[in-house]
Write a structure and sequence with these properties.
two-stranded antiparallel ribbon; OB fold (Dihydrolipoamide Acetyltransferase, E2P); 38% strand; alpha+beta; 217 residues; 4 helices; 5-stranded mixed barrel
Length: 217
């Protein structure tokens, strides 16, 4: 009696599980073009004023957002971690966070001496007592980026990204607010590599992603 009851619970759950696997496996594959230039992980991020770029309405899914570009932004480095968000309010527009390190933190390979993690839209690190630098150094040469993919192809390409790989991202640091008539939402990007704590993450509207020899737009 109990075995029959358990089977009634088990089989629907199993069918649901395999159905979800099929959905994930059948998602759109990103279309990239060959890109032969090496990714310069030793460079500083480049940031330029975007005063001449007008704000625009963006609707990635069910909600509409008002996007205000604050700075044109180019970031190359090593992926320290990737976290996918599904249930928080920002997941509708920024499904992934990428933690990335560059310049002195990667040239010295010091990033390998830290333990990195991501949770709740934060990225965290830990190091041993013999680590030669402090939190200010780590924060100066790494960042957590709330990635807003400009289109479905870039969103699909983000699914390919793995920890420890080189990546190059282009686009804009942006402020996000709700469009008229939409649910209240506000998200403002940091414009500095020197800040720490709340509000120090970059809200990054990505228009091109270069990864493993391909460019995705």
């Amino acid at each position: 009696m109990s075995n029959q009851h358990n089977n009634k619970i088990f089989w629907p759950a199993l069918v649901t599980f395999f159905f979800l696997l099929v959905l994930i496996g059948c998602g759109p594959r990103p279309q990239g073009t060959p890109y032969s230039e090496a990714i310069e992980i030793n460079l500083e991020p480049e940031q330029y004023p975007a005063d001449d770029v007008s704000e625009f309405v963006f609707q990635p899914n069910k909600n509409k957002y008002l996007i205000k570009p604050r700075a044109e932004y180019f970031l190359s480095g090593i992926v320290l971690g990737k976290e996918r968000y599904v249930y928080d309010r920002g997941a509708d527009i920024a499904p992934y966070d990428l933690a990335i390190a560059w310049n002195k933190l990667v040239l010295t390979k010091l990033y390998k001496q830290l333990k990195w993690s991501q949770s709740g839209r934060w990225y965290l690190w830990r190091y041993n007592e013999d680590f030669p630098f402090d939190n200010t150094f780590v924060a100066r040469y790494s960042s957590n980026n709330h990635i807003i993919p400009a289109n479905p192809n870039i969103k699909a390409a983000l699914g390919l990204v793995r920890k420890g790989e080189s990546i190059d991202l282009s686009g804009y640091l942006v402020n996000v607010s709700q469009a008229a008539g939409e649910e209240e939402f506000t998200w403002n990007s940091s414009l500095s590599r020197e800040d720490q704590g709340g509000g120090s993450c970059e809200v990054f509207y990505v228009t091109e992603l270069r990864y493993k020899g391909k460019s995705y737009k």
